[in-house]
Amino acid sequence: MLKEQAEALLDEVLKEHPELFLIDFTVSSANQIKIVIDGDKGVNLEDCMTVSRAIEHNLDREAIDFSLEVTSPGATEPLTMPRQYGKNIGRTLEVKTSETTVKGTLVSAEEEGITLEWKAREPKPIGKGKTTVLKSVMVPFSEIIKANVVLKF
């Protein structure tokens, strides 16, 4: 009952704010509601407060005791939905597939997958020494096991 009410309110607020989207929604047996949202341009505190208020102000605490937490994915959390890649274009990602792990700059996010680019040092085709080559790979979403933004300090 609580889950259904919270889910309906969540759907409503996300329809009112189409730039936001749901990453995770859980309700524990102790009535702890946890919602993780993201946005096409990121998520700020105001976005979390908007979602929180839309749910909290429309549930009756007199009828049922609950706790509510609305957050955005942390910087170290893996990207889990194709929609999250668009806002990370230009950033360095580490993408793991069943075949390999690729680290490169995200240059595009299409409907079917992403394209990464990176520079590699390779032997010259003729003669001695190495040359820097720009490499590129398209990775379908279906092949991505895990993808993280590489944080720079």
From TrEMBL:
<dbReference type="InterPro" id="IPR035956">
    <property type="entry name" value="RimP_N_sf"/>
</dbReference>
<dbReference type="GO" id="GO:0000028">
    <property type="term" value="P:ribosomal small subunit assembly"/>
</dbReference>
<dbReference type="GO" id="GO:0006412">
    <property type="term" value="P:translation"/>
</dbReference>
<comment type="similarity">
    <text>Belongs to the RimP family.</text>
</comment>
<dbReference type="InterPro" id="IPR028998">
    <property type="entry name" value="RimP_C"/>
</dbReference>
<dbReference type="Pfam" id="PF02576">
    <property type="entry name" value="RimP_N"/>
</dbReference>
<dbReference type="Pfam" id="PF17384">
    <property type="entry name" value="DUF150_C"/>
</dbReference>
<feature type="domain" description="Ribosome maturation factor RimP N-terminal">
    <location>
        <begin position="19"/>
        <end position="75"/>
    </location>
</feature>
<comment type="function">
    <text>Required for maturation of 30S ribosomal subunits.</text>
</comment>
<keyword id="KW-0963">Cytoplasm</keyword>
<feature type="domain" description="Ribosome maturation factor RimP C-terminal">
    <location>
        <begin position="79"/>
        <end position="153"/>
    </location>
</feature>
<dbReference type="InterPro" id="IPR003728">
    <property type="entry name" value="Ribosome_maturation_RimP"/>
</dbReference>
<dbReference type="GO" id="GO:0005829">
    <property type="term" value="C:cytosol"/>
</dbReference>
<keyword id="KW-0690">Ribosome biogenesis</keyword>
<dbReference type="InterPro" id="IPR028989">
    <property type="entry name" value="RimP_N"/>
</dbReference>
<protein>
    <recommendedName>
        <fullName>Ribosome maturation factor RimP</fullName>
    </recommendedName>
</protein>
